[in-house]
Amino acid sequence: MAKGTTWTYTGTVGIQGKDAKLEEIHLSWQTEVVESVDRGPMKAALVRGDPRDFIWYSGEPEHGCYLVITVEDRELYFQNSPACVLPPDPSLALSPENLRLKLPARVGDIFAADPERKNDGRYAWCVESVNQVNFSDVKGVPQDRNFDTCLLMYRTNPDHQIATYVPGIGLTEYVYSHHGTPSEVHMKLAEFHSTAK
Predict the structure, then answer these.
(1) Which of 59, 102, 137, 172 is most buried when burial is the number of CB atoms within 10 A of its CB?
(2) Does domain 6-193 have CATH number 2.40.50?
(3) CA-to-CA distance for 149 and 146, rounded, in angstroms?
(4) pTM of model > 0.85
(5) Distance between CA atoms of 56 and 52, rounded to whole angstroms?
(6) Per-domain residue ranges for the chain?
(7) Which of 37, 60, 58, 55 has the alpha carbon at shortest distance from 47?
(8) Which DSSP symbol is given to 115?
(9) How many CB atoms lie within 10 A of CB 118?
(10) Quick one: pLDDT at residue 52?
């Protein structure tokens, strides 16, 4: 969450090519904390860039802006920030629809559910699995230990998203797939650089 922290992702983006076939493009993308504030139990960061920037990619990627907030290192909130500014009072973004994860995570936990829908496992972020992983292939992450990972799934009728979070590191893998017109994103963390002291 410290200013200057970066995540570099590599992977593939699939778009509708000629003859309506899926065309894959290999690329890398950087996410950076451009501004942050530490208010004791609450930490907020304005983040520029995210693998979600490639949903419906058309060949001209643009870094989106996002607000990321943690509370007592146990709750993670995430939302788009079209104005690309850190709000004077980030606590106003602490709403249920922005909650992505609460620790300790358990399989079946549900976050940001659409209150207008039945709890059928769709239109909500759901913890699919909690595992331990060694990131031996990620530059900047300690190689001599295992990390807890939380795999979250968001399903709708036309698409789904999979996001893997690691406490202390952040988003380590992101997948988006549209079930109709081709649009695919699969990005994995390749390098992590933290400026936290």
Answers:
(1) 172
(2) no
(3) 9
(4) yes
(5) 9
(6) 6-193
(7) 37
(8) T
(9) 9
(10) 96
